[in-house]
Amino acid sequence: MKHNLKITIILLSMFLITQIIGLWVVNFYNISENQLPYGMQPPEKISNEQGVGFLQNILIVFVFAIILFFVLTKIKAEKFIRAWFFVVTIIAIALCLNVIFSYIGISYYPSGIAILLATPLAFYKVYKRNLLVHNTTELLIYPGIAAVFVPILGVLGIIILLLAISLYDIWAVWKSEFMKNLAKFQIDKVKVFSGFFVPYANKKTKQKIKLLKDKSLKYSDKKRDKFLETAFKKAKIKINLAILGGGDIIFPIITAGIFYKVLGLIPALIITASATLGLLFLFMLARKGKFYPAMPFLTIAMYLGMMISWLI
Question: In the chain, helix, strand, coil percent, each to 5?
């Protein structure tokens, strides 16, 4: 097992909670036929041919985004990338909060209130780097994004997309190490990571960290960060990181959402359960110090879930 039992349970729990929130958000926008706010509503009726066209466009945009991000990392445009994250985060959180506010009975422009609340949350997440805010907002971001893609993809489209993303994930992690370098760039340079991020350490290391943090209290905020960074290096403190990328979270939500739209709630829940079991299998199989592409494991699990859904 790559991480200890406690951290594994935390990651699985956050993954599953996000999936459930995602189905709830998808139900609001795509099953109950409430419109997406902020001018993001797709055409009312999309034919199969249009769905394939949307899939082609999504793949093209995906490739373009990877190339653009790669170029931006090379020219060290960290400020631009951070601003990009900030804007996307605001919209995604607002889409999810709009659902919450609508359900609790806020009838006066809930989407406007949602974006007003989403802005400081996104700012604190992107520019202040608070661990609790980061992971909490991640629970809201991916359901919001998924709600945009569920209406424009069908079952065939998501089957093809999952296969394409899985092949890319295998190449990016095991062949080119692009995803590994991208994650390090996000964490070290951009100071933002798209996905769940859970640092942890053993008991002895925690005691060292507490001692250094106590010593750092005599410094101001800016000097404190610099002191801790230098002190951690001198003390050779190593923090383990348990991470789960955003793509590994959002594609199961989109898949379950599409099955919810086409076949109903039970098939959607089967997809969610199968994806969670696939992730658990990966965590059990993985070993410390090694990187693994999660999408192939999730895709195979979801394909099995699809077969079960069709059988019943």
Answer: 75, 5, 20
Radius of gyration of the chain (CA): 20
The type of residue at 232 is: F
pLDDT tens-digit series, residues 54-79: 566 666 666 666 676 666 666 667 78
d(CA 83, CA 75): 16
φ, ψ of residue 95 in degrees (nearest 5) = -60, -40
Q: What is the mean pLDDT of the chain?
A: 83
Please give the Cα distance from 141 to 137 (Å, whole number): 6
Q: Beta strand pairing status for 195-200 and 240-245?
A: antiparallel
Q: What number of residues does the chain have?
A: 312
> 309: left (phi > 0), else alpha (psi -120 to 50), else beta?
alpha
Q: How far is CA 172 from CA 167, 176, 195, in A?
A: 9, 5, 17
For the record, the structure tokens of 133 come out as: 């805010």
Residues 6 or more apart whose CB falls under 8 angstroms from that of 238 comprise 201, 205
SS (H, E, C) 5-36: HHHHHHHHHHHHHHHHHHHHHHHHHHHCCCCC
Count Cβ atoms within 10 A of the Cβ of residue 311 and give its class: 0-12 exposed, 13-18 middle, 19 or more buried. Answer: exposed
Half-sphere exposure at residue 295, Cβ-oriented, CA atoms within 13 angstroms: 24
Listed residue (298, 309, 238) closest to 268, CA to CA: 309
pLDDT, tens digit, 9 for 90 and up, residues 155-170: 888 998 999 999 988 9
- The tokens describing 299, both together, are 């895709």
Whether 189 contacts 82, CB under 8 Å: no
Residue type, 29: Y
Cβ atoms of 29 and 293 within 8 Å: the answer is: no
